[in-house]
Amino acid sequence: MAILGLQGIRGGVGTTSITAALAWALQSLGETVLVVDASPDNMLRLSFNVDFVHRDGWMRALLDEKAWRDAGMRYTTQIDLLPFGQLTPAEQENLYTLQAKWSQLGDILRELHELGHYQWILVDLPHGYLPYTQPLLEACHHTLTIVNPDTNCHVRLHQQALPTKAHVLINDLRVGSQIQDDIYQIWLQSQRRLLPIAIHRDEAVAESLGAKQPLGEYRSDALAAEEVITLANWCLLHYAGVRTSVGSET
Questions:
Q1: Is the dihedral of CA 20, 26, 29, 33 positive or negative?
Q2: Is the dihedral of CA 236, 241, 246, 248 positive or negative?
């Protein structure tokens, strides 16, 4: 089993959509997957046909002193989902007070890893290095840092430290954009952790969220869906054989 965290270098780079798409791609390759939403935005569930008024999730369960396992949901025979849960306005305004609860997710991930029911656990991580994200990063065997080839992300790659075991994945690469091509060429020469895979801009990605489906389920023939399959194969080659203790170096 591999625990793989996906974290945007900033918000809005498409991390949640990539997480859902990768889960579907791994399933299509015969893998079993648990998808965990660790972000207070609580958006991941929307890619798995869960109604937006659905409030349950692991965090909501912990806050309400209920069993977090009851928040789990089955999407297919090979994909299960553990939503974050809906926070109240007061809870959203005081996220730092939830740090102890957030840390429990690291313990949950370790427990799930020891049980070995899934070949993959994909964790949609909140961006940034806030106190509650560090225990989650430590619980992941590896991390994919999602970036867009724009000036904002370019600056952040130079002033933000990446997780120790992170690879950088480019999302929303636009054909014909001179500035993006320039940045992409610079990264090819300077970013040693850059994956040899990029996800191109594709309207099917936005459409799939509207359809409440992972990208590959909605449009398996879309360019971005084919690129995510390539990403899934890369993950199988480089990550699936990892059998280390959670949080250790590889």
A1: negative
A2: negative
Alpha carbons within 13 angstroms on the beta-carbon side of residue 206 total 7
Label the pairing between strands 73-74 and 79-82.
antiparallel
Under DSSP, the state recorded for 126 is P
* Contact criterion met (CB below 8 Å) for 30 and 232: no
Q: Specify the 3-state DSSP secondary structure of 200.
A: strand
Residue 246 contacts residue 51 (beta carbons within 8 Å): no
Q: What is the dihedral of CA 20, 68, 240, 46, to 10 degrees?
A: 0
In the block, which residue shows the tokens 């798995």?
Answer: 48
Q: Which residue has the tokens 């075991």?
A: 165
Give the 3-state secondary structure of 162-173.
CCCCEEEEEEEE
> Given its phi and psi angles, is residue 128 left (phi above 0), alpha (psi -120 to 50 degrees) or beta?
left
- Could you read off the pLDDT of 56-85 as tens digits, one per residue? 999 999 999 999 999 999 999 999 999 999
Phi and psi, residue 249, nearest 5°: -80, 150
Question: What residue type is assigned to position 69 of the chain?
Answer: R
CB atoms within 10 A of CB 88: 11
Q: How far apart are the C-alpha atoms of 199 and 90, rounded to whole Å?
A: 37
User: Residue 39 in contact with residue 130, Cβ under 8 Å?
Assistant: no
Beta-bridge partners for 122:
4, 35
109: its two tokens: 């991930």
pLDDT digits (tens, 9 = 90+) for 118-147: 999 999 999 877 777 888 998 999 999 999
Distance separating alpha carbons of residues 86 and 179, to the nearest angstrom: 38
